[in-house]
Amino acid sequence: MATTPAETDLPLNSGRKLIAPLWHTIVLLLFLIGYAFHGRTTVAHVEGMHLTSKVPLYLFMILLELSLVSYVWFLGVKPAGGSFSALIGGKWNSAGHVLRDIGVAFQFWLVVIVVLVGLNFTIGQSPQTARAVFMLAPGNLSEMIVWVILSVTAGVCEEFIFRGYLQKQFLAITGSDAAAVALQAVFFGIAHSYQGVKSIATITVYGALFGMLAVYRKSLRPGMIQHAAQDSFAGLGFALLKHLGKLPAS
């Protein structure tokens, strides 16, 4: 039976529109899968380098995060007519708006702590995760400063990529918020494969929580704040405990 132009021009799933070409998303997903495959040996490889300073490693990771955001924006969202403000959502028109999102981020942090602690007791912690933490955590003042910059970069960029771009793309494809949240969370977990199989499961749940927050708030801002703060405090706290002799040196 012949189809009319009106039928073939219908956007995906009852009016939901892709924010970038489908090929663009497929390329990103293939990169994440390839990165995950390579990530299985990342910790051992970096340990074998016996770095005297982790600053170059942090700078490389910052560059990688910014490169992925550049790919998403310049080759996908911008050519399709999208905007940063629409992708991020929410508005900061006053100090009160900023404080509101900080408060939401703090409340969300409490939820995250409860869920992650519960998962840790349920499935246990991967030895690979402990190795990754030792490998990445800062050890001196210069590393701590760059670590915070890395954490803020990761918090903003990863929320933009996973909860902004990918979640909206999956929503356009599936027409379901639940499916979109689940799919982006799976790829978020896969992207952290260097921390081990058990951590992939935990980080997938973590990513799903961020996805639900983005749907509920219609904004990435609280998630970005919490993500950046948690990464910053985790690294700095680990470094402090190690300095105080509460953790083994290797």
Concise overview:
The chain has 250 residues and is mostly helical.
**Helix proportion of residues, in percent?**
over 70%
The total count of helices amounts to 12
- Spans of at least 5 consecutive residues whose pLDDT stays below 50 are 1-15
The counted number of beta strands is: 0
Rg, rounded, reads 19 Å
Q: What is the general shape?
A: globular
Percent strand equals under 5%
Structural class, by secondary structure, is: mainly alpha
Span of the ends, CA to CA: 69 Å
> H/E series, N to C?
HHHHHHHHHHHH
Major beta-sheet overview: none
Average of per-residue pLDDT values = 89
Question: What this model shows, in words?
Answer:
The chain is mainly alpha-helical. It has a domain at 113-244. The protein is 78% helix and 0% strand. The protein has helices spanning 5-8, 12-15, 22-39, 42-49, 55-77, 84-88, 95-123, 127-136, 141-174, 177-191, 197-217, 221-243. The chain is globular and about 55 Å long.
